[in-house]
Write a structure and sequence with these properties.
Layout (H helix, E strand, L loop, with lengths): L22 E3 L5 E5 L9 E2 L6 E2 L4 E4 L8 E2 L4 E11 L3 E10 L20 H10 L12 H4 L10 E5 L9 H8 L1 H15 L3 E7 L3 H18 L2 E7 L8 H9 L14 E5 H13 L5 E7 L7 E6 L4 H6 L10 E4 L6 E3 L12 E5 L17 H5 L6 H9 L3 H8 L9 H5 L6 H18 L1
Parallel strand pairs: 1-14, 9-10, 9-12, 10-11, 13-17
Antiparallel strand pairs: 2-8, 3-5, 4-7, 5-6, 7-8, 13-14, 15-16, 15-17
Helix pairs in contact: 3-5, 4-5, 4-7, 10-11, 10-13, 11-13
Length: 445
């Protein structure tokens, strides 16, 4: 019997708008804006110039160091500019702008058919790095690094994160339902790379069809590959999909304060990432598109769409019939952990799991009041922290105290604290501000 984690909340999931919508391949956009920062680590460096003609899948920016990632053209066309452009999380970012020539040919050498069994771990890591695969759950950590744990932290367990606990989002759900065999193959090659044979697929129990499809697909590979993989129906509670929560629930292991999953011999990847791993290792296809949920009550026809990286939010929403109501808030990602946007002229990046257009009654708004010390945020925190302290310390610019005395860096920014706060305190913003100040302070040293 799997136990739950401490804290957590039960927001209305609002998934009904898109969970029945099959994955729809979007039209080729007339223009894509491809930021050079779509991953944790160093920004990629352009290898093309204005006026160059590029093909789909062609390298256009190379990684700058080990913790970085290559970036490829998502359409065929002409590079018309390399400039600072709107970015969903960084405000502005140097980006490569490509105008389509209405062709859709792969650059020479793609796709291929590769036998992964003949590859060494080093070769697989090099392929993932060269083809720009990063975590697609939002964190965008370069996958070649994540799947190359320190030799002193030998991994023995792999977990596929199929929880997708954020409200509204159904992209991973649709992939598990429609592409279950491909997801299972992605799990197989990922476990081969990690050299483990024990794994879990964690899916919340409000997704019975996904559980059924994945059980069948996993059974098919387990028989022939001698893999011990369990598909587990987890209690529906947010943030079930946070990797530290998944690890605790599925293995009983607890990632130490300031630690990583590899400290307890576990690696976690989400659904979209293992699909990208499979495409890269088996077919030689770089990460140039992703499945994204476009939803919210302001959207005419909510959908799950396979979008080219660099597609603007405006184009993505137009593929769904545009807006039927004025949007009170546009969010990249989910409503709990996503980032509000001030414009639709923002490009889809590798970590864009959702585009939400929300009306007034969908937005958790209200006047912010001082903390009343009710303790609800403490009860909701899945990491056992004191979120109210972070907001207070942010007001005092006491970010080092937040880090050293209150374990700021253990916060997973799930938003449970802000969700339950009766005073409508902007706790997550305070946490992000504190973390930014800590980061900038460290960089100055």
């Amino acid at each position: 019997m799997f136990k739950s984690f401490i804290g957590g909340v039960h927001p209305k999931d609002n998934k009904a708008m898109s969970e029945g919508c099959i994955i729809e391949k979007a039209p080729i956009p007339n223009k894509v804006v491809i930021p050079l920062r779509q991953h944790i680590g160093s920004m990629a460096i352009p290898v093309v110039k204005i006026g160059d003609i590029v093909k789909k899948g062609q390298l256009i920016a190379s990684n700058e160091g080990y913790i970085s990632s290559n970036i490829h053209a998502s359409i065929c066309g002409t590079v018309v500019d390399i400039c600072e452009y709107n970015h969903g999380t960084f405000g502005k970012c140097l980006s490569i702008i490509i105008e389509s020539n209405n062709e859709d040919d792969w650059v020479e050498g793609i796709p291929i058919n590769r036998n992964v069994d003949e590859l060494t771990h080093k070769e697989m890591a090099q392929i993932l790095q060269s083809l720009g695969v990063v975590g697609m759950g939002g964190a965008t950590f370069p996958t070649h690094v994540k799947l190359s744990p320190d030799e002193f932290k030998a991994v023995d367990t792999f977990i596929l994160n199929g929880a997708e606990c954020e409200p509204y989002l159904t992209a991973d759900y649709r992939m598990m339902v429609e592409w279950a065999d491909k997801v299972a193959q992605g799990i197989k090659v990922t476990m081969k790379m990690l050299k483990v044979n024990k794994g879990y697929v964690g899916i919340e129990d409000n997704k019975p069809l996904a559980i059924e499809k994945m059980q069948e697909a996993i059974k098919n590979i387990s028989i022939y590959e001698n893999l011990d993989i369990k598909v587990v129906a987890l209690p529906t509670k947010y943030p079930q999909g946070a990797e530290k929560m998944l690890i605790k629930v599925l293995t009983g292991r607890e990632v130490p304060s300031g630690g990583l999953p590899t400290d307890v011999k576990v690696v976690v990847q989400n659904v979209g990432t293992v699909v990208a791993i499979y495409d890269a290792l088996v077919n030689g296809i770089p990460l140039i598109e992703r499945v994204t949920t476009i939803s919210g009550r302001a959207i005419n026809n909510p959908k799950n769409m396979l979008l080219r990286i660099g597609t603007t939010f405006e184009d993505a929403i137009s593929y769904c019939g545009g807006l039927k109501y004025e949007a009170k808030k546009i969010i990249m990602g989910g409503p709990m952990m996503g980032f509000a946007q001030y414009t639709l002229d923002i490009p889809v990046v590798k970590g864009t799991s959702g585009i939400l257009a929300l009306i007034d009654k969908e937005v958790n708004q209200g006047t912010e009041f001082p903390c009343i010390r009710c303790g609800k945020c403490v009860q909701a925190c899945p990491m056992g922290l004191i979120p109210s302290a972070f907001a207070t310390l942010a007001e005092k610019n006491a970010y080092l105290e937040a880090k050293q005395e209150y374990s700021l860096l253990d916060c997973v920014e799930c938003g449970s604290c802000a969700y339950v706060c009766p005073s409508k305190r902007k706790i997550v913003q305070s946490i992000r501000y504190n973390k930014l100040q800590c980061s900038q302070s460290s960089n100055k040293k």
